[in-house]
Amino acid sequence: MKLSNSTVDSLHRSLDKFNQIANVAIRLYPLLTKSTIQLLNYSENATYLVKKTVTGEKYILRVGRPGYHTKPEMESELKWLKSIDQDSSIQVSLPILGGNGEYIQVVNYVNEPYYCTLFTFLEGDAPSEENEKELISQFEKLGEITAQLHEHSINKGEKLNQIRRITWDFETILGSTPKWGRWQDGIAITPERADLFTKVAEKINSRLEKFGKEPHQFGLIHSDLRLANLLVEREQIKVIDFDDCGFGWYLYDLAASISFIEHKSYVPDLITSWLKGYRKVRSLPEELELEFPTFILMRRLQLIAWVGSRDNETTRELGSRFTEETDILAKKYLYEGKLY
């Protein structure tokens, strides 16, 4: 996908702004004296690898996109992270206090606050969607981890329900107040495709209304357990980037885990492996499996909205192809109630 000169210039200006903010932010952490930064990812936020020049110690700095989360919402994310670290065996990246004794540092740029957070660095590499056999094996472990997160959410429900995070339901995903934008504004939305996706969205909404939001199936979730937010080191899988955690259906975490690869032929094997791991920790009635297609396709339409409203390396690579490859899934769901 070729970008226009104006788009390239806009992207460069945005990255330059975030780089300036990051360089200011690291000075707010006394332990980062004499450190360098390197941009790792630019998506909802700008994420940097911070490296101390003398010792080589590594950290992760996240510079939040203005207006995406409030400070109390970000503080709630960090509370959940620390709770997971204290009460489970799941390895997560933890926040680090700044010189003022707070986890979230505020950098003002052109009279706008940017919230910056420093995290511990975790070793590992993201799973590869190209290594089918290995990925299927890893999904069994991911299923276990996801179930552990859900058990933690349920067991700590009274405490966690008090934190301030977004609710991921139909309205905020595909409805009238979509957090990631409207799928109708996605790339390659033709009149015929808009009609197809509208019918699909209506079916999703109808099925979710029947599914309900009982405490055993709706609570605090990671909501973005895609491959890019997992780190594999030997046999261990670590979970990063809780930036989009919120209250949603537990089954949505399964849908999120196959983000961008929903159309791949090996996805049914991923789901089978995930289920095997999940049921080692937490029961999941077979009748709930009937709604897997609903959650997967809801996530897929949400990603179409995300691709259409963001400008980063991932969205440029996906382009119109991602929307076009959704047609087959949408038709199977609409007319057969399944995806594979």
Automatic annotation (TrEMBL):
Residues 43-282 form the Aminoglycoside phosphotransferase domain. InterPro entries: Aminoglycoside_PTrfase (IPR002575), Kinase-like_dom_sf (IPR011009), Pseudomonas-type_ThrB (IPR050249). Coiled coil: none annotated. Belongs to the pseudomonas-type ThrB family. This is Phosphotransferase enzyme family protein.
